[in-house]
C-alpha cells in the first residue's frame, strides 16, 4: 500500500484509534479526529491514547487533531467511529468538509432509533452520497486485541467491488485480514444484532446459567438475526460468516466486550442506572435493542431474545422472570 493513501478517522475512542493504527500499519497516512483537543494533543505528544487504549504505542504515521476540516482534508477514506446514535448530527456538521470522491467507511454496529436506519443508510442520507461510496468494516474485532496486534479477520462490505477491494488493501496487515462481501445489509445487521445477543448472553452469565444456556442463546440469537436478515434481503450465508457467527462468538465469550460486560452486570443484579454508571464506553446494544425490535416488527419478524433484552433493559423485567417466559413459549420446529 502506497503511503499516499490518506485516511481520516472520526472518533478517537477504542475502535477508531485501533482501526486507525491498522490503517497506519498497512501504509496509509492517518489523521484521527478527537472531540477533545486535550486528547488530540496527548495522542500527538505521547503516541498513545491514554483515555481509550492506555499502554498501546501508536505508529508515527498516525496523528490526531480536534479540527474536523484538518482531519477530512484529502482523505481517500473517511472512517466514522462515533456512537451510532450520534452519527446523524455529527456527520451533518462534517459533510461539507469531506474530500470530493472520498469513500465513507462505517465502523459502527448499531441501528438508528426512530428511523430504524442502518449506519450506511444514515451515511447515504446525511452525506448525500451513493451506496457505491459507502463501505462497512465489521467482524470479530475487539479493539483491545487488535491494538495489541493479535490476529483477527474482518469483513469489508460494499456494493461496489472495486471500492471494497481498495479498502481491503488499505487495511490489510500481518495481523488484520479483511475479506470482501457485497452483502452490506447482512454485514450491518450481523454487527448490530450481535450486540443485543451479547447483552442476553452476558445476563445469562451474570445469573450463572452455564454454558449450555450460552450456546443456546448464541445459536438461537443467530437464528433470529438470520430471520430478520432474510426479511430485509440479506444473504443468509453472511450470518454464518465473520459478520455473523464470528462476531457473536467473540462478543459472547469475551470479558473485553462492553455489551457482554453490561449484560453480566445486569444479570448479577445491578440496576440499569448502576450498570450505566460503571460503563465508560459505548455499549451499542443498550440502545439498539429497541431499534432492532422496531425493525423486526416493521418486517413482521419474531425476535424473542431481542424482545426479552428490551424487556429486561428498558422495562425493568426481572431477568429470572424473563428467562422463565422465554423458556415456556410454545414448542416449535428448529427451523422456524
Ligand atoms: N471497541 C470495539 O472493540 C469495537 C469493535 C468494532 C466495532 N465497534 C463499534 O465502533 C463504534 C465506536 O465504538 P468505540 O469502541 O470506538 O466506542 P468508544 O466508546 O470507545 O469511543 C467512542 C468515541 O466517540 C466519541 N463520542 C462519544 N459521543 C460523541 C458525540 N456525541 N459526538 C462525537 N463523538 C462522540 C467519544 O469521545 C469517543 O472518542 C461503535 O458503534 C461500536 O459498536 C467497536
Ligand atoms: O465491546 P463490544 O461489545 O462493543 O464489542 C466489540 C466488537 O464489536 C467485537 O467485534
UniProtKB/TrEMBL annotation:
Q: Which residue positions are annotated as catalytic?
A: 194
- Main localisation, per the record? cytoplasm
Subcellular locations according to the entry: Cytoplasm
Parts forming coiled coils: none
Task: Give me the reactions it catalyses.
Answer: sn-glycerol 3-phosphate + NADP(+) = dihydroxyacetone phosphate + NADPH + H(+); sn-glycerol 3-phosphate + NAD(+) = dihydroxyacetone phosphate + NADH + H(+)
Query: Keywords of this protein's UniProt record, alphabetized?
Result: Cytoplasm, Lipid biosynthesis, Lipid metabolism, NAD, NADP, Nucleotide-binding, Oxidoreductase, Phospholipid biosynthesis, Phospholipid metabolism
* Every Glycerol-3-phosphate dehydrogenase NAD-dependent N-terminal domain range: 8-163
Recite the lineage of the species.
Bacteria, Bacillati, Actinomycetota, Actinomycetes, Kitasatosporales
Q: Which family does it belong to?
A: Belongs to the NAD-dependent glycerol-3-phosphate dehydrogenase family.
Tell me if S-adenosyl-L-methionine is a UniProt keyword of this record. Answer: no
In terms of Pfam families, this protein maps to: NAD_Gly3P_dh_C (PF07479), NAD_Gly3P_dh_N (PF01210)
Q: What is this protein called?
A: Glycerol-3-phosphate dehydrogenase [NAD(P)+]
* Biological pathway: Membrane lipid metabolism; glycerophospholipid metabolism
Enzyme class, first EC level, given as a word? oxidoreductase
Q: Which residues bind sn-glycerol 3-phosphate?
A: 109, 139, 194, 247, 257-259
Asked if the record carries the keyword Nucleotide-binding, the reply is: yes
- Sum up the protein's function in the record's words: Catalyzes the reduction of the glycolytic intermediate dihydroxyacetone phosphate (DHAP) to sn-glycerol 3-phosphate (G3P), the key precursor for phospholipid synthesis.
Q: Which InterPro entries match?
A: 6-PGluconate_DH-like_C_sf, 6PGD_dom2, G3P_DH_NAD-dep, G3P_DH_NAD-dep_C, G3P_DH_NAD-dep_N, NAD(P)-bd_dom_sf
Give the source's domain of life in one word.
Answer: Bacteria
Which PANTHER family does the record match to this protein?
GLYCEROL-3-PHOSPHATE DEHYDROGENASE, GLYCEROL-3-PHOSPHATE DEHYDROGENASE [NAD(+)] 2, CHLOROPLASTIC
Could you tell me the EC number(s) of this protein? Answer: 1.1.1.94
Q: Where is the Glycerol-3-phosphate dehydrogenase NAD-dependent C-terminal domain?
A: 183-323
Amino acid at each position: 500500500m502506497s503511503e499516499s493513501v490518506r485516511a481520516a478517522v472520526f472518533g478517537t475512542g477504542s475502535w477508531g484509534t485501533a482501526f486507525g493504527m491498522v490503517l497506519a500499519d498497512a501504509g496509509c497516512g492517518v489523521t484521527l479526529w478527537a472531540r477533545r483537543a486535550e486528547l488530540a494533543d496527548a495522542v500527538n505528544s505521547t503516541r498513545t491514547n491514554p483515555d481509550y487504549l492506555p499502554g498501546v504505542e501508536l505508529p508515527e504515521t498516525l496523528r490526531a487533531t480536534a479540527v474536523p476540516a484538518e482531519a477530512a482534508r484529502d482523505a481517500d477514506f473517511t472512517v466514522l467511529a462515533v456512537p451510532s446514535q450520534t452519527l446523524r448530527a455529527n456527520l451533518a456538521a462534517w459533510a461539507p468538509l469531506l474530500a470530493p470522491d472520498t469513500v465513507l467507511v462505517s465502523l459502527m454496529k448499531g441501528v438508528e432509533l426512530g428511523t430504524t436506519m442502518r449506519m450506511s443508510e444514515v451515511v447515504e442520507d446525511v452525506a448525500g452520497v451513493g451506496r457505491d461510496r459507502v463501505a462497512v468494516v465489521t467482524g470479530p474485532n475487539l479493539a483491545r486485541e487488535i491494538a495489541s496486534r493479535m490476529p483477527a479477520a474482518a469483513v469489508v462490505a460494499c456494493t461496489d467491488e472495486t471500492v471494497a477491494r481498495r479498502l481491503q488493501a488499505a487495511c490489510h496487515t500481518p495481523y488484520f485480514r479483511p475479506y470482501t462481501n457485497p452483502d452490506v445489509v447482512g454485514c450491518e445487521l450481523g454487527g448490530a444484532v450481535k450486540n443485543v445477543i451479547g447483552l442476553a448472553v452476558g445476563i445469562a452469565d451474570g445469573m450463572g446459567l452455564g454454558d449450555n444456556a450460552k450456546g443456546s442463546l448464541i445459536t438461537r440469537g443467530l437464528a433470529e438475526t438470520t430471520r430478520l436478515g432474510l426479511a430485509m434481503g440479506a444473504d443468509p450465508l453472511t450470518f454464518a460468516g465473520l459478520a455473523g457467527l464470528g462476531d457473536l462468538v467473540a462478543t459472547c465469550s469475551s470479558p473485553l466486550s462492553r455489551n457482554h460486560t453490561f449484560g453480566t452486570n445486569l444479570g448479577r443484579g445491578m440496576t440499569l442506572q448502576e450498570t450505566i454508571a460503571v460503563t465508560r464506553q459505548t455499549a451499542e446494544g443498550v440502545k439498539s435493542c429497541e431499534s432492532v425490535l422496531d425493525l423486526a416488527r416493521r418486517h413482521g419478524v419474531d425476535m424473542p431474545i431481542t424482545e426479552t433484552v428490551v424487556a429486561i433493559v428498558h422495562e425493568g423485567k426481572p431477568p429470572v422472570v424473563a428467562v422463565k417466559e422465554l423458556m415456556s413459549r410454545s414448542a416449535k420446529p428448529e427451523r422456524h
